[in-house]
Amino acid sequence: MIAIIDYGMGNLRSVAKGFEKMGIDARVTDSPRVVDDAPGVVLPGVGAFSDAMSNLRKLGLEEAVHRAVKKGKPFLGICLGLQLLFESSEEWGTSEGLGVFPGRVRKLPPGLKVPHMGWNTIKVQNPCPLFSDLPENAAFYFVHSYYVEPAEPSLAACTTDYGIEFTSVAARDNVFGIQFHPEKSSALGLRILQKFGGLVEKC
Amino acid sequence: MKRIIPCLDVTGGRVVKGTNFVNLRDAGDPVELAAFYDRAGADELIFLDITASHEGRKTVLDMVRRTAEEVFIPYTVGGGIGTLEDIRAMLTAGADKVSINTAAVKNPQLITEASARFGSQCIVVAIDARSTEPGKWEVYIHGGRTPTGIDAVWWATEMERLGAGEIMLTSMDRDGTLDGYDIPLTSVISRAVQIPVIASGGVGNLDHIVEGLTAGEADAALAASIFHFGTYSIAETKQYLSKHNVPVRI
Predict the structure, then answer these.
(1) Over 60: is that where the pLDDT of A44 sits?
(2) Is B72 in contact with A186 (Cβ distance < 8 A)?
(3) Closest chain B residue to A9 measured between Cα atoms?
(4) What is the pLDDT of residues B126-177, one digit of tens each?
């Protein structure tokens, strides 16, 4: 069973329903113990970075995330869940993140329509098991005002062009972070959830 | 990428499509139709509850919940949404965005409060506009029945200023006519605001959609009857747009 972490940041129903649709057992939880027992973990979320960190801390989930990553469990951050994996964010001054990946979260530069909302394509830069055999010009649904800037280029599994080229998927070992919403990206998005479910099963 | 958005008008849990907002015809189960559009390649969906009565509210929430189980593209729900609590209920049931029309005119502060609380990306302001003289349009509320005296172009900029994430712009003059979008209206509002504009009202063929997204400068094209009655499929619409150099997800 995959644990979908509920820490009060947005509606997690679609993520849960997406896994369900793919026949994968996933459960929304705010319990660190359930996260510890789960063979795979998903950190979704939308909203403010600093609120998210303080909610994770309050619920004792920050440590649970670190334990899951340390054990090498398949871990998937979605949208804000990707951004939280990094060291810091420039949202509201500077906020400290989980620091699983080196690098920071930056605001999309002025002159672009913000939030970046709608469908956009991704370019695979480094092979990643969740993004193998994608059709050409595969598009996914994005809604975000900030983007991640990994300190190590090898972390950038996929990039997306939105006036600037930013990292839309960051990955290392079994930890994956996706800027777009697979649960809102139709059949191709659900396929990513399915592949993540497959990784969890193999572990 | 430009977005193609089928609109599902809903009353009593069934899909209908009005012509100039009267003469309703039944076009099926909303959830089934929504799932069909997801598979067919629609980029987003909009449900408009055109009855929006108090007793209808539970039916709509139930529909929104069922949709979350079958539909994996973003969807917006509108019709009769007037309070922060209405918005919260829709988002919790699974909607990605809500569209607000009459309540934005009656209480503009709602838009500011809603975008502060839920994020501007989920607050769509719907504007129903009717031409008064060349180059001038007036905002109508209550499903197009009540004129407000408000200038539509000014209203769009005001809504952006107060925190709207998107404008859904319907030409009352064109709605249900199949004569094409009101291009002057659409382009003047698209230029007046930075936020995305969804063109609505009047689509009868694929050239109308091309026009709305090019000359009209809209970010998204909404249509109902041409899709519901199978005049054009989403796939052929997108092929056509792509052939006319409009970037779309295929």
Answers:
(1) yes
(2) yes
(3) B118
(4) 999 999 999 999 999 998 899 999 999 999 999 999 999 999 999 999 998 9
Enumerate residues 100 to 139 of chain A having a beta carbon within 8 A of any beta carbon in chain B. Answer: 113, 115, 117-120, 137, 139
What is the per-residue pLDDT across B185-230, written as a single tens digit (0 to 9) for each? 999 999 999 999 999 999 999 999 999 999 999 999 999 889 888 8
Q: Walk me through the domains of chain A, giving residue ranges and CATH numbers.
A: 2-202 (3.40.50.880)
For helices B56-70 and B30-40, the axis angle rounded to 10 degrees is: 30
Which of B38, B68, B119 shows the shortest C-beta gap to A14?
Answer: B68
Q: Which of residues 160-189 of A touch B (CB under 8 A)?
A: 183-187, 189
- Which residue shows structure tokens 């479910």? A197
DSSP notation for B161-217: HHT-SEEEEEETTTTTT-S---HHHHHHHHHH-SS-EEEES---SHHHHHHHHTTT-
| Predicted structure pTM score | 0.93
